[in-house]
């Protein structure tokens, strides 16, 4: 968030004046000190909401959040009485910025069917911060997103990134934040038709990455028919060293066990499970391996043979077994937008009172869509909560952020307020009265 | 046909197309009634010349219930009324009385509804359960007969797999008591729909809503032109869509004339055309048109086409841009069935907004929520809650009780069954949900669901949670593990 705001009038705030959240005056340049007072504070670290709390941030970073926090001298004070002040949500597994319209192939950079490259693919340069969905999802309360490529022609999809959803020209929080690989039904298909073929591809790729490390000069990887390109070998070397996390999509319990077993042969692998619909059946193993899970939350149908044991209680059971769980739209319909994760989290709170179901308490449910995804990719020291030192990604809501009746009234990213309008709000306003007036609708803007 | 954005899942349509199942479309089997004598215009003779309108009749039967009164409960009656601290009585499968106080017979089961809400069962007008069941493997992919743009001859009920685990989830998590199963949207004329009670049975006939009118699934827009354009045939454009539609309706008019004349006057019976039977049913007002259509301009074209050929569109489904022509829909008596907030997954959904349904209601247009999704059907009350939030944040005041019309009464009307279900009025089917809290909260779930007065889901009784054959003995059985 270093660049200038685009299409948004950033005004220098006046110190020690109370402001209304979302008002133009509460937009800030970096460098100021801000205190949001009087709201219910949701830190995002698993703790329960704090009544009448204060959130202080300075120079784009959180200074403090909680009760009894002193407002620093000279701070701009934003009154949030009757509102909630919450950590911005982190989309756990998304394609934000990677496409404009999923079904419009020309606009979609999520997968490359005929590319000779796989693990080498780095999505960061393709991220478009002006994609329409970015504004829409920021207005839904998402401030950061873990963006992943999709696989095509290889089990390796490539390297994903972490982005912010600000209205500016600098979306990348971390490029090459992880490698993504498919090892379930999708992986079988990507590898030519079977899980054994997927594992053969994985092990051969790892072996070649080691070959490259031992003797880069002797490694080919530029021949037309080479199984692994040089760039892929370099990317996978970082995975084998544990420098780059490996996100693995599997759903079936036995697939999860097979993935966890990879650590025996490749001990430095820094694994993250994605999906894990049957994770509850092997939750103790996952917890013992200290492997976090980016889960699909509400999947409860035997949608595939690899997810016959899918249950809404999956996340609750994994969490109870000690697994670090984040929620995402993995495997789910994302047509409602990635901010649907708050609905998932709310449902997990709701099912906690349904006999026989396992859910989450509010604090853990909210953490699963804020610090949880950040923790899964090792960035919870930087993003995902209102704990001191984190980037000041703060959303002021007009009610409980997990409740469907609530909406954000102000969104701060890196301590700066961002616009609360989108193409969707403009369409809504244009058609508030559907019939044409003195001029066609095209003149209403 | 669902063709939304899905992470890590293939688009089902492509799966269906990959199958490339052969079909002899528009089979022209002769079905000549034998007892019809020529020129005999008596009612008996006319009836004898009619082909069967209901050859796969419902065998659904209501399961036993007990007279039940729910007290101290907040009621949305489905027709816009709210009763705080009210009471409702149902017995013999029917609603008996709903009000502040009702007279309950001695021996009636009494349920304390303190802190709870009582509503009509949810009706989903757009589902593919059974036709695209779980597991979503190719062998089960039976929702799109994507071998010809005109397959009015297929009937969704002949694809429905009554063991789809999705029915049980829609009941237990969603409080869905009635649903319409539609063919997919690959084709301009997708085929006949079927309306089901959400009660497991061994056969699809055993789930069929007795006496519900049939529907005809039609589709505008990207899907038909993409599917058939890719095969190098008409339609490959939107104008091609309308051209094939019009040609087909023109044939249907001729078919209707021939058969109507024959049925009235006798003579040589015309050839039967199973697809044309369905279109004739539309022209005669017996079969309701449910038209998948996203864009405002295309809906306007369809409305004119319906006038040209003398039929009525009951509802546009998906109707992402309905908010742009709310006045036009209202003036033509056409309903819109929509998602709460789906947008941007394909070009024709690019203008989707969360306030769509709110703006329709605000304009006085008939509107309702729908799922088109085996997961969304489990949370339609939450989808409406999102719409209410969009409405209120746009300054549009819609009451909770009015919003419930989108979940039961309006879809019942659009399915032609509002005289039997969809609201808590005396004499109607006792299709009722008791929610464990405010039903527009994300934290609320069904506690009990009755269909025709029979308690078929009870959150407090694991035995009253259905487990389909498919799930039996599998680790996911009924999601009750």
TrEMBL record, chain A:
<dbReference type="InterPro" id="IPR051781">
    <property type="entry name" value="Metallo-dep_Hydrolase"/>
</dbReference>
<dbReference type="Pfam" id="PF07969">
    <property type="entry name" value="Amidohydro_3"/>
</dbReference>
<keyword id="KW-0732">Signal</keyword>
<dbReference type="InterPro" id="IPR011059">
    <property type="entry name" value="Metal-dep_hydrolase_composite"/>
</dbReference>
<dbReference type="GO" id="GO:0016810">
    <property type="term" value="F:hydrolase activity, acting on carbon-nitrogen (but not peptide) bonds"/>
</dbReference>
<protein>
    <submittedName>
        <fullName>Amidohydrolase</fullName>
    </submittedName>
</protein>
<dbReference type="InterPro" id="IPR032466">
    <property type="entry name" value="Metal_Hydrolase"/>
</dbReference>
<dbReference type="InterPro" id="IPR013108">
    <property type="entry name" value="Amidohydro_3"/>
</dbReference>
<keyword id="KW-0378">Hydrolase</keyword>
<feature type="signal peptide">
    <location>
        <begin position="1"/>
        <end position="18"/>
    </location>
</feature>
<feature type="domain" description="Amidohydrolase 3">
    <location>
        <begin position="306"/>
        <end position="416"/>
    </location>
</feature>
